[in-house]
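Q: Given only this backbone (678 positions), what sequence would you predict?
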């Protein structure tokens, strides 16, 4: 066994995450790091081995300590862990700002960048040093002392506010339930949803059915419940979570957090000399200016809105024909699903029996093996933090190159949504060995119920492929420099390229047999159903496009123009964006922004446009597979070599051009979405 294969065993020890000692362990490590950094910064002639490599060691040690705690706080939340986690956030923020504002350390990196040794470094290490010098500037290293102090205060407070935003949203989601003794009001719900609701009630010691705001429960009601009042009840509870409206009005209200976050972000940007937080955000992205972003989004909106208006007109006419003359927000999913079935005789629920989770996972692995020559092997003996979690090792040519934990099902005390995160980053260690990457994938699918395996909607299949695309970007990197390995150092508006790219195989006739097998008969998705699924691919694609553009424009314009106007302005801006690009008008009580974690508690502030920006790249990249064959090994190898293996070691536009042979073209995205013809 090679040294590299041994190093994949550097796996998280979840049992070691003790809320009672987490803060003291972190403080101890941060103090050790500070002492080490002080010595590293005081060098006459630093080189990679005496400065950058030890700094990598320091960063990695902190990541290996903090990553398991952060992950468990999201997926196995408890009051003790939450308190410990939140007590650590200010410590991490202060430490990060200290490093970013360390003049001696910056000077040492400048010496390295200006030394003859710099020219001898490989491209990845040069990029890492260049990025580090940029990040010193963005952390305020050149600010006068009083502004440095204020910058530190702002950074610490923003980290606290983001955590509180997430906590409020989780608490609001968990606090609301609706208990029904009988299933009369649940007419229309599929059997799997009824079983899940009964299982939820039983878990709480209740008879009957329990509806929650966890997404599988909410989605089932909004899509299938015949009872309009029930749909309204859940819609109101869900769309007002953590706000001043709805059944929990004011109880977990994020209003004050939103305005303080926005105020502090703008102040932070101004301290650094940027006109706005949007300008500050773009300093590390592919897009070069706010005007470029707004122009990009506006152009997509101009081309998409007529299609969305056509979609919505069709939906309203259909709803009216079914007796609903006043289509409301809580009716849209219900009548959309009925219209989809009416038009294409296909539904997400009808597809679910053909997509048992195990088949989808195995099919996904098989597709990735065909494309990139890597295989996955499960190891149930490895410690996991919950019985639902599965652990796999990734192999290439028989050699272990990475590992991944997959946590796919919704449960209490688990944050909603789907995401990929990392534990270990691929890098070269001081002794010359290679630390191999380890990833987490988290989703919130419905659990197995009533003796059935977990069954996925096709939308959920697509979500799984998306997150696994992120994981591949992390795991297949061949860069061994921490700061630009895997997804590290990748421009935020390019990081969605591999994830959105992999989604395409969920729609390919030649790929469907690999990921589908009826849970009772083993039959692959029948040709007739496949044809209807493919025909319905762009059903309401205009409406879906403008919905994403609504989020992106709201986010970007908010961070471009906000200057202390308060929470009413936030709502007014969202209303204005909706009037410009949307076709569905939510009710006045809707408070979508209060649960918009991507921008208030995640990394997407002034960056939500990245989904569409990267989708241009992913659609255009996939068009080469459309030309050469979706399982063409040479094209797969080229994508591996040009994109997945390169991490953040090069400019993403250069990487794209090396793969595609030209700059990206928006036409593939519009074609895939049915906005323009073939």
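A: Predicted residues:
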């Amino acid at each position: 066994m090679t040294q590299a294969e041994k190093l994949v065993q550097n796996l998280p020890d979840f049992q070691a995450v003790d809320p009672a000692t987490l803060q003291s362990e972190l403080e101890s490590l941060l103090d050790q790091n500070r002492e080490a950094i002080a010595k590293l910064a005081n060098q006459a002639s630093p080189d990679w081995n005496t400065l950058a490599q030890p700094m990598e060691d320091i960063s990695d040690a902190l990541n290996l300590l903090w990553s398991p705690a952060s992950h468990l706080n999201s997926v196995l939340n408890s009051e003790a862990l939450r308190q410990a986690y939140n007590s650590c956030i200010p410590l991490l923020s202060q430490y990060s700002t200290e490093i970013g504002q360390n003049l001696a350390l910056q000077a040492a990196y400048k010496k390295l960048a200006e030394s003859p040794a710099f020219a001898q470094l490989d491209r990845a290490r040069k990029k890492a040093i260049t990025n580090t010098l940029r990040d010193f500037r963005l952390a305020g290293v050149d600010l006068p002392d009083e502004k440095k102090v204020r910058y530190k205060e702002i950074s610490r407070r923003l980290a606290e506010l983001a955590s509180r935003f997430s906590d409020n949203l989780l608490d609001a989601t968990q606090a609301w339930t609706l208990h029904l003794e009988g299933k009369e009001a649940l007419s229309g719900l599929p059997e799997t949803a009824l079983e899940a609701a009964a299982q939820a009630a039983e878990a709480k010691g209740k008879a009957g059915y329990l509806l929650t705001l966890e997404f599988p429960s909410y989605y089932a009601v909004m899509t299938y419940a015949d009872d309009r009042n029930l749909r309204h009840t859940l819609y109101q509870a869900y769309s007002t979570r953590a706000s001043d409206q709805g059944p929990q009005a004011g109880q977990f209200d994020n209003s004050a957090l939103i305005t303080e976050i926005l105020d502090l972000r703008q102040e932070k940007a101004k301290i650094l000399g940027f006109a706005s937080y949007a300008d500050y955000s773009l300093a590390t992205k592919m897009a070069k200016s706010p005007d470029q972003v707004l122009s990009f989004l506006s152009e997509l909106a101009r081309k998409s809105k007529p299609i969305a208006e056509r979609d919505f007109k069709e939906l309203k006419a259909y709803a009216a024909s079914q007796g609903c003359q006043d289509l409301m927000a809580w009716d849209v999913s219900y009548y959309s699903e009925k219209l989809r079935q009416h038009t294409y005789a296909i539904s997400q629920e009808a597809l679910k029996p053909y997509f048992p989770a195990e088949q989808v996972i195995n099919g996904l692995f098989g597709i990735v093996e065909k494309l990139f020559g890597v295989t996955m092997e499960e190891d149930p003996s490895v410690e996991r933090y919950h019985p639902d979690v599965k652990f796999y090792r990734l192999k290439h040519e028989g050699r272990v190159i990475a590992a991944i934990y997959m946590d796919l099902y919704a449960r209490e005390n688990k944050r909603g949504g789907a995401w990929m995160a990392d534990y270990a980053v691929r890098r070269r260690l001081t002794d010359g060995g290679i630390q191999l990457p380890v990833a987490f994938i988290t989703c919130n699918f419905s659990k197995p119920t009533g003796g059935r395996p977990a069954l996925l909607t096709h939308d959920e299949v697509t979500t799984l492929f998306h997150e696994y695309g992120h994981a591949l970007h992390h795991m297949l990197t061949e860069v061994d420099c921490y700061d630009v390995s895997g997804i590290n150092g990748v421009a935020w508006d390019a990081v969605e390229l591999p994830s959105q790219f992999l989604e395409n195989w969920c729609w390919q006739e030649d790929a469907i047999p690999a990921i589908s097998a009826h849970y009772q008969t083993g039959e692959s998705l029948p040709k007739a159903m496949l044809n209807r699924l493919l025909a319905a691919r762009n059903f309401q694609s205009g409406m879906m496009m403008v919905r994403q553009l609504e989020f992106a424009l709201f986010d970007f314009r908010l961070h471009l123009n906000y200057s202390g106007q308060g929470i009413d302005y936030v709502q007014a801006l969202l209303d204005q964006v909706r009037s410009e690009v949307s076709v569905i008008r939510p009710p006045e009580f809707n408070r979508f922004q209060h649960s918009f974690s991507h921008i208030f508690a995640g990394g997407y502030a002034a960056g939500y446009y990245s989904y569409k920006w990267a989708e241009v790249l992913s659609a255009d990249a996939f068009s080469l597979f459309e030309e050469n064959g979706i399982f063409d090994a040479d094209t797969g190898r080229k994508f591996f070599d040009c994109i997945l293996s390169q991490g953040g070691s090069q400019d993403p536009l250069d990487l794209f051009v090396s793969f595609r042979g030209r700059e990206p073209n928006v036409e593939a995205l519009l074609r895939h979405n049915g906005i323009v013809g073939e």
